[in-house]
Amino acid sequence: MGSGAREPLEIVYSIVEAVEHEIQPGGRGRRTFPFNRVTLSVLAPSRDARARFEAVFDGEPALRERIVDRLRSAGCEAVDLVVDVVYVTRGQKNWRDPGFHVDFARVTPVDAGDASRGPAAARIELTVSRGVAERRAYAFMARRIDLGRCAEVRDSRNRLIRTNHVAFAEGSGDVNQSVSRQHAHIGYASGDYRLYDDRSAHGTSILRNGRTVA
User: Fold this and answer.
1) Is residue 42 part of a domain?
2) Which residues pair with 207 in a beta bridge?
3) Which of 57, 75, 199, 214 can pair with 206 through a Cys bridge, CB separation 3.0 to 4.6 Å?
4) What is the pTM of this model?
5) Are residues 35 and 92 both part of a single domain?
């Protein structure tokens, strides 16, 4: 590795911190990690560099174990978390860190015994253009994506009734206050994603080229 390159263990620490940064408040003092798949693109310009990363990522503790431990220490469940690593020889301009990039997604498994549900959902990317959410950009591969205010929605008996995958923050201006806790969801079927309003207080509109089309 070059004199200016970071050691693999330093990259590991940065990756774990990047994952921890995605933890969201869930209400009543709870915290939640809304994703179950983490895909890492790691810059490894040579076979030697890749071998160094693999030795650390697959060592004791393994990278996934480090991530899960950090999430659990923050009070988050991570039982079904999948961590994928892709090695690339060149980074991209949109990477926040020159050594790696992290994509987060919530993937809903398809029951192999239920053919009516169809194939796994395609990848969809969402960008928050107005209002304040935990992240500005999201990537999902899921058959249903819930959108609303607060990460966790509970009933009067404090029972969890919904987890918003795109969660707008409480008390962050007029735009956020127009978002209901159970505002809308995006569903995947027959190869397409469609937006559905969940009886929100202010309704859900689709804008195209600055004009409302639905």
Assistant:
1) yes
2) 212
3) 214
4) 0.53
5) yes
